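Please fill in the sequence for the structure shown.

STRUCTURE ENCODING:
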């Protein structure tokens, strides 16, 4: 669980500022590495493991702790988030950026009802991203993961996300790819990430399609990977082995605690 998000982030890391509009590329480039997306994904998982009441105070502690101990990831943190993490009196900064969606995947795995998933996804977002679009992006991503892991079809997931959040999911990757460029917003990343999942045939093809769209590829593929893992249930062993050779032991320990 949630390894799919970290894989997507790591695979996409080298293409964020050098987009590759094709599905044909080495899955793990020699230069790829986890980014702030993975760090904060693990921080949210740590929050869910260590605080059964899921308080904002503990979420603040986990996010800031991980950020301070991993201060210089590949690609760096967003400027708004970095300033928030260093402030003495931290307050939400009304962001609609895709950071709320990229760190939420653990929420999609952690609860038994869609209602609770949506509520905790909202909480996970609004500590920083309290703009309606920032909250919506986190909720939509967590909901897609919840629906995927509980056996819903792609069409059922698409119908729910469209009806509930209003995202345009009528396009295909081939429709999006030619003109899509970097977009750091939830509303300009989450629908595209979901489309890569909907067009895929397995976990790896979802990640490859996500990269092929371009844009903010580490975050886009982090979102895609989280949903694809939940839907396809398995990740090829060679991909799992590779990502486990890249991420820190602390990440692996937190994932182990979360998966219990």
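FILLED IN BY: designer on duty
SEQUENCE:
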């Amino acid at each position: 669980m949630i390894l799919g998000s970290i894989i997507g982030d790591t695979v996409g890391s080298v293409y964020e500022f050098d987009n590759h509009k094709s599905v044909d590329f080495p899955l793990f480039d020699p230069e790829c590495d986890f980014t702030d997306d993975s760090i904060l994904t693990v921080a949210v998982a740590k929050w869910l493991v260590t605080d059964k009441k899921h308080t904002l105070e503990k979420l603040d502690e986990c996010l800031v702790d991980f950020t301070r101990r991993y201060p210089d990831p590949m690609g760096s943190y967003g400027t708004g988030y970095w300033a928030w993490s260093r402030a003495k009196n931290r307050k939400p900064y009304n962001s609609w950026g895709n950071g709320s969606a990229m760190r939420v995947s653990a929420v999609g795995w952690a609860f038994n009802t869609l209602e609770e998933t949506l509520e905790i996804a909202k909480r996970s977002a609004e500590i920083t991203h309290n703009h309606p679009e920032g909250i919506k992006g986190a909720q939509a991503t967590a909901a897609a993961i919840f629906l995927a892991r509980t056996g819903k079809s792609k069409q059922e997931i698409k119908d729910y996300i469209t009806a509930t959040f209003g995202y345009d999911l009528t396009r295909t990757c081939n429709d999006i790819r030619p003109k899509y460029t970097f977009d750091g917003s939830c509303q300009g990343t989450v629908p595209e990430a979901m489309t890569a999942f909907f067009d895929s045939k397995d976990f790896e093809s979802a990640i490859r399609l996500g990269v092929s769209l371009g844009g903010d590829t580490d975050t886009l593929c982090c979102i895609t990977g989280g949903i694809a893992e939940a839907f396809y249930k398995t990740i090829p062993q060679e991909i799992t082995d590779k990502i486990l050779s890249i991420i820190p032991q602390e990440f692996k320990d937190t994932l182990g605690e979360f998966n219990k």
